[in-house]
Amino acid sequence: MATDIQKLIGTSEEDEDEEMEMDVKEEGDDDDEEDGEKNVDATSMIAGVDGGMPTRSSNNNRFQQHHQIQEQVGTPGGGGVRRCRPIEEKERTKLRERQRRAITARILAGLRRHGNYNLRVRADINDVIAALAREAGWVVLPDGTTFPAKSQGPRPAGVNSAAVSSQMVSPQTPASLKGVTSGYRSSGELNACNMKGVFIPSSSPYDLPSSARSQNSSIVGDGGGQTDSHPLIGGSMDNVGDKQIVDIPLKLPERDYSNTSCIPVYVMLPLGVINMKCEMVDPDGLLKQLRILKSVNVDGVMVDCWWGIVEGHAPGEYNWNGYKRLFQMVCELKLKLQVVMSFHECGGNVGDDVCIPLPHWVAEIGRSNPDIFFTDREGRRNPECLSWGIDKERVLRGRTAVEVYFDCMRSFRVEFDEYFKNGNISMIQVGLGPCGELRFPSCPVKHGWRYPGIGEFQCYDLYLLKSLRKAAEARGHSFWGRGPDNAGSYNSRPHETGFFCDGGDYDSYYGRFFLNWYSRVLVDHGDRVLSLAKLAFDGTCIAAKLSGLHWWYKTASHAAELAAGFYNPCNRDGYAAIVTMLKKHEATLNLACTELHMLDQHEDFQEALGDSEGLFWC
Known about the structure:
alpha/beta, Glyco_hydro_14, beta-amylase activity
């Protein structure tokens, strides 16, 4: 028995070593020893009970065993029950703890540099685990409670409802299958998760069984009131605290979702549905296709209005004839319209099946003044769209570039006034750059770029260089008024350049100055054009398109994003300024390439270190 107790004492010492390694103070040792003594007494008592009524002999044995334990755990001085830890053992424990902290510090440094993790400077291992869990799709509450974000995962019963609602409810109006009544009046109510109720349509013989469970997303609603299972929801509601999680089935029966908050579906029409003469190419064939779309309950269509067509021949002269006939055909079928104001050239990019250049009179100006177009370091011009350097320069027959855009948008608004008043036009997407996207044309195929090249900076026209020199002089470093000379070429890899490589010039004083200016040009251009679009289309939803440059995202510099104007290296959020600008104008954000996944990429391009999911993860 004494041998077993000696083993028990040895185990207690090992446990105390582990506690010391986890920075637990030695004062806790006394409690452990008291617990050990209680365990010994309890063990002896149980032994006595199992053997029947305790006898005098058994009591004496227990007394002797307890006395032996006190002698074993006592100090050499014989005074108390506290053990002295050898100095060498304490030093070994401290050394192990230092080694562990050094490993943690290196992990944190790597995550900050390469993973876009927002970890505090003195983060501990719990912060690392929480960050990794959140990226893996889990919800981690401040108290450490962790559960899957998806509705199919188990949820802890005692989780604070407010914390859950803040993680699972978007601060925007519920969309898709998240049907709610008109009780929502403001985004503030959404933030507080004040779900007034769930939309319940009329009964139907095609109702799903109430026991059906979903594998889809969830809705958080108030726990008050009766909320029975319903065919639209296709299952019962799980409770988390005083909130209810509405499980939505993966497949729903056909119903009328008008006047609900379901996501409307729009189909994009072919780019060349209108020819260069502003005439419909195949009206009969298009009508058949539109009827098919209507038969499958599509909400509407999206169509490009090309600047090169409507103002193609002379400045200020607009021809909307083809679009008038097209819009009339669409609206007669009770379909809605989303219109893209395309101020760029069509042709030469992925998916372009027609060629629609910029207006003829703009091309004439470009022949005499090629600096109206974006220019790379070698002096090659890109006529895909106008340089943002002439946004405020009167080089277009007495008008600035933003004035030209505004005049075109205002003409469209006046010409199709009845469609705006009737609500047939539900949204205007404003073209802000190449492919209609807010970015620099850093990856032009016509200049030899191929995936996964990093691209090149496009700031070498006369007007943007003038702006760069002015910014450098204001900073007090006039020699910074130039573009980087070690940024490689269109098809370079980051590690092949002195600017984008790990620890390269992109993170130097000059590099940070240049990239700040370069990205500021992009944000300012979007701000100017959207402010005028908001003025022209007052009362109508406007949108902007943002591209997803996912290749080289797993490198420190994010070279492809930097060349396109997104100052988003691993240690900086380059999209916050853009989103803030869009919010200022109440513009909807249209993210391109969100459908890309790493598994879809070709094996030959694994070296591109791309991560589309990481780019759009939030």
